[in-house]
Structure formats: structure tokens, C-alpha cells
Design brief:
This protein has about 475 residues and is an alpha/beta fold. It has three domains: about 140 residues, no CATH class; about 120 residues, NAD(P)-binding Rossmann-like Domain (Rossmann fold), CATH 3.40.50.720; about 200 residues, no CATH class. The strands form four sheets. Strands 3-4-2-1-5-6 form a six-stranded mixed β-sheet, with helices on both faces. A three-stranded antiparallel β-sheet has the order 10-9-12. Strands 7-8 form a two-stranded antiparallel sheet. Helix 8 links the parallel strand 5 and strand 6. The radius of gyration is 29 Å and the shape is flat.
């Protein structure tokens, strides 16, 4: 079971849906009020209201998406009011920026800054106010009333059951009460486990459910007791009680566990990384938009470098090499050619001079590097054609560097291949931590740290720190 389990009851889901609907209504209402107030105080022409009204639906949609993305609905229990406040601010600002970008791209001539300012002030005050005076007050009152506690019956008494109870009590949003335990061992019946009695064996599940108020049964038994779940499931179905089963059955240390339906059959999925589909989509859109915005600036650089390479030795401008990417699929990676034409053929002659530990190759003053190549490698300009790979979808702006087939064939640890579970990138944590000065083991350690802790915020931080690392030529060869 994931360490961040939150006991999502029907109450929580209902309140979340209520908040989403309420926020959308408040955003729409506050935008209409902002247009009206601005119109009254400035005395603009009669079509002022109509011109701004067309942005109502896009603003509500974009703001709702951004509020969701920045965590305004993730949980009702937050570390502080400030955290919740910042999530709402980011959501509203994100939605507003999305609409303003559309206005810019559509070349719309006029949007009142007063409307934008008044809307932000009103929407922020309204959403925070409603949450504080209505939702939080109601929520707090309901949680503190013991009659509304979520009643849980835990099947199991061992270490897994104890860990389950600890996770529930630490992360639940609503008050919770463990009504008791069930176990296979008859001798444990009547004993107390952390303040809750063992009410019976698994054979007594029907009777225990009939005689007690139980909202949910949670099964925390070892793998050798899984055969008993069918009896518990049947009893829960007959008694109208929800059943949950701890899914950490194989101690795989999986970063993400989820339930899927395949042809009507429920499947438990153990994913090696914690990326979800919406996050991957956001990452992909960010890559595409960033590259397209950068191309007008970079194309002149491309032309100058291409001419310089041609004048240097008359060889091809690009170096194309097969690399290993996502799920070990191979693709052609593009770089500006910085070495002599037959550089790949000469690498075997230079293997004895390899200064790197591990499968990668590094050599100070590599004789294969051309005059232009030394400059473009030092400044990392040689990597710019990989933006073609980013647009093609074989690479991302941020991710573990794609490795050559030669290097991958020299991997000697299974953990090294976890890097293939994500899209390779132009830059990663290694780029801002010493680049070629790092040992292969440290390089791998940083790649795995990136995979295990990925977020869009982490990608942005890496990109921002990559710029000074490249400019200062830190660790470049």
C-alpha cells in the first residue's frame, strides 16, 4: 500500500465534487461582477460587457483545471492555511494566464486590466472565504462529532495490520474508529490490539458485521491467507459493507499501485514510477510549447553552426547515432557533429584511454574532436539538434540522458535499466551537478533520484539551473 494512503470515503468524494462545482460558480460569478464593476466605474462603450463575456467559459474551464492541478482538491487536510491559500492563488493565476495566452495568440485587441485585477481580488476572496467560513467550519464540526466517525473493521492482527492502522490514523481526512479485528487464530479472540478488541475469527465475519456498526472492512493479511478473502468479500457484499484489501502483497517497493479494469476484470497494477497520465500529458505539452517558442531564437544559431562545421572539414553537419530510449526502444538521436567523420570506428583504439568508470566513455583532449567541435561541446551547442527528438516524441527536455547501444550493453546491474522507464532528456540532475565530472555510479544515482521524485516543478527547477551550468561550462568536455 502506498505510504500516502488517504481514506477516501463517500463523504470526502461528495465534498470534493461540491467544491469543484462551487468554485466554478464562484469564478463565473466573480468574473461577471468584475466586468460590471469595471464598466460602471470607467464608463466604457456599450459593447464592453459583451467583449469580455466571451472569455467566461474559457476562464472557468482553465481555472478549474489549474485549481485541480495545483492541489486545491487533493486533500481537505493541509499542512497550513498558507499551503491551501497558495494552491488557490496558483490555480487562479494559472487559469488567467492560459486565457491571456489565448488572447495574445488570437490577436484580440483589447482586454481591460481593471477587469483582470478586480476579478483576481474578488475570486480569491470568494473562494478562500467560502472554504474558511463554510467548508472548513462544517468539516471541523463533522470530524469532531464521534457519531460521524468512519467505522472500520480490520482483518488481521499482525505487523501489516498495525502498519495499516498507523497509515489510516495518520492520513485519514475524517474521524476514524477501528471497531475491532478479525483473525484466523481462535486463541486471539477477546484480546486487545492497540485499544481495539479481536471480535472473532474470519469464520465469524457475518455475525460481527450484523452486530456492529461497520462502514468498511480492510484486509491486512499475509499472502498465505489470501484464500480467506473470498469468504470476507461475500459477507461484505451481503451486508452492504465496503471492502478494501492491502495491495502491497509482494514487497516490491513499487512507487505506484493502482487498480485497473480490463474487460471487466479488476487488475492490480504495480508501476515502477509514479508518473500518471495527466502529468505525462502536461510534461509533453510543456516540451512542445517550449521548443516551438525557442525555435525563432535558435534557428540563426543552427545556421551559423552548420556553416562553421561545413567550413571546418566539409563533412556532414549532423551526427546521428542510435540511442536507447523509453522501454529500451531504439531511436536516432541528432547532434551537431563535433568529431571527425570516422569517430565511431576509432573508439575501439581509444578504449584503453577511457577515464570514466562504468560503461560510458570519456577522454580528456579526445583527438577525434574537431576545432569547431571543441567549442560547441564546451558550450553544449552540439546538443541543440536534440530539440528535433523532443518534437518527434523520442526525447523530453528533462530526463535521464539517452545512452548508446554500446554503453547499455555494458550495464552490469538490473537497477541501471530502471532509467528506461521514463523518456530520456536533454538535461537532468547530473547536468546541474557536475556533468562529465561525475562518476557513472553517481550519474546513475542522480537519474534514479529524478525518476523517484519527478514533478513538473522539479523539471522547471532543473531547466532553470541548467542555463547557468551551461553558460559557466561546469563539467563540460
Amino acid at each position: 500500500m502506498a505510504g500516502t494512503l488517504i481514506l477516501q470515503s463517500n463523504k470526502t468524494q461528495y465534498l470534493t465534487r461540491l467544491l469543484v462545482t462551487l468554485d466554478a460558480c464562484l469564478i463565473a460569478l466573480m468574473y461577471l461582477v468584475a466586468i460590471h464593476v469595471s464598466h460602471r466605474f470607467t464608463g466604457y462603450s456599450g459593447d464592453f460587457f459583451t467583449r469580455h463575456l466571451v472569455f467566461l467559459l474559457p476562464l472557468v474551464t482553465a481555472s478549474a483545471f489549474c485549481l485541480f492541478y495545483f492541489g486545491a482538491y487533493k486533500t481537505l487536510t493541509t499542512p497550513s492555511v498558507t499551503t491551501y491559500f497558495l494552491a488557490i492563488v496558483r490555480g487562479l493565476v494559472g487559469g488567467l494566464i492560459a486565457v491571456l495566452v489565448c488572447i495574445f495568440l488570437l490577436d484580440i485587441e483589447y482586454v481591460s486590466r481593471l477587469v483582470i485585477g478586480v476579478f483576481m481580488l474578488l475570486a480569491l476572496s470568494a473562494i478562500v472565504g467560502v472554504r474558511y467560513f463554510l467548508i472548513w467550519w462544517y468539516f471541523k464540526r463533522r470530524v469532531e462529532s464521534e457519531i460521524n466517525f468512519h467505522k472500520v473493521l480490520v482483518v488481521g492482527t499482525g505487523s501489516r495490520a498495525k502498519r495499516l492502522r498507523d497509515l489510516i490514523e495518520q492520513n485519514t481526512e475524517w474521524g476514524i474508529s477501528v471497531v475491532g479485528h478479525l483473525d484466523m487464530d481462535q486463541n486471539l479472540v477477546g484480546d486487545t490490539i492497540d485499544g481495539a478488541k479481536v471480535l472473532g475469527t474470519i469464520e465469524d465475519v457475518h455475525q460481527v458485521l450484523r452486530e456492529n456498526v461497520v462502514d468498511e472492512v480492510m484486509v491486512a493479511v499475509p499472502r498465505n491467507m489470501l484464500s480467506s478473502i473470498s469468504k470476507i468479500a461475500a459477507a461484505c457484499d451481503e451486508e452492504g459493507v465496503e471492502l478494501r484489501v492491502m495491495a502491497d502483497l509482494f514487497d516490491m517497493g513499487s512507487s505506484r499501485i493502482k487498480m485497473d479494469l480490463f474487460g471487466g476484470v479488476p487488475l492490480v497494477s504495480f508501476a515502477p514510477v509514479s508518473f500518471d497520465d495527466s502529468s505525462l500529458l502536461a510534461k509533453r505539452l510543456f516540451d512542445i510549447v517550449s521548443v516551438l517558442l525557442a525555435l525563432p531564437i535558435l534557428l540563426p544559431i543552427f545556421a551559423i553552426v552548420a556553416v562553421a562545421i561545413k567550413l571546418d572539414d566539409g563533412g556532414p553537419v549532423f551526427f546521428v547515432q542510435e540511442r536507447v530510449g523509453l522501454r529500451k526502444r531504439r531511436f536516432n538521436m541528432y547532434k551537431f557533429r563535433s568529431m571527425i567523420i570516422n569517430a565511431e570506428e576509432k573508439i575501439k583504439e581509444l578504449e584503453k584511454h577511457n577515464e570514466a568508470e562504468g560503461p560510458n566513455f570519456k577522454m580528456t583532449n579526445d583527438p577525434r574532436v574537431t576545432r569547431v567541435g571543441r567549442f560547441i561541446r564546451k558550450t553544449s551547442i552540439d546538443e541543440l539538434p536534440q530539440l528535433i527528438n523532443v518534437l518527434a516524441g523520442t526525447m523530453s527536455l528533462v530526463g535521464p540522458r539517452p545512452m548508446s547501444v554500446r554503453d547499455v550493453d555494458l550495464f552490469d546491474k538490473a537497477a541501471q535499466r530502471k532509467r528506461f522507464s521514463v523518456m530520456p532528456g536533454l538535461t537532468c540532475i547530473w547536468q546541474i551537478s557536475g556533468r562529465s565530472n561525475l562518476s557513472f555510479d553517481k550519474w546513475l544515482e542522480l537519474d534514479l533520484a529524478y525518476i523517484d521524485n519527478w514533478s513538473m516543478e522539479l523539471d522547471l527547477r532543473i531547466l532553470l539551473k541548467t542555463i547557468p551550468a551551461v553558460l559557466l561550462q561546469k563539467g563540460a568536455v
